Amino acid sequence: MPKMTEINKSMTVAGLISSIQPPEKQNDVKKILQVLKKYSKDIHVWGDNIIGAGKMLYQSKSQKPYTWFQCGVAPRASNISVYLGMTPLSSATVAKVGPKCSHGVGCLYIKSLADVNMKELEALLKKCFAVKEFVAPGAKPAKPSKPLKPEGKGAMKVKKRPGKKA
Question: Which regions are flagged for Basic residues bias (predicted)?
């Protein structure tokens, strides 16, 4: 089973979408995916069930930097989770997208797209693709040994520099 931070090479986006039940949720995920495709051609299944678009460098305070998707969508039992990368969310922003939507720190939770203002959702998704790198407060930024590729395989590797403390 791949980690959530890894591209799942054994599952296709089409395969994941075809497994989504009920059909209404499947159609909603397809519509969100169409919006993501406007901003990125680099779309993969990450982990077991997240459809991620684009790539950015992500570094938390406690981990080495790794490649992460800029924006993603995942079917969940009670809703559709939309991962918004490092785009900040406020209750006012979420209310514009839909009064029945809720949110976490970087996720928007949608029960049904029927209750969503698609123009507001698309504007929010578009913002995600402007973020190319995130370094958490307190983390020491690491310089990648290779430039981040918009297309390609797996996570970016970071080499330690001689003479620098880890």
Answer: 156-166
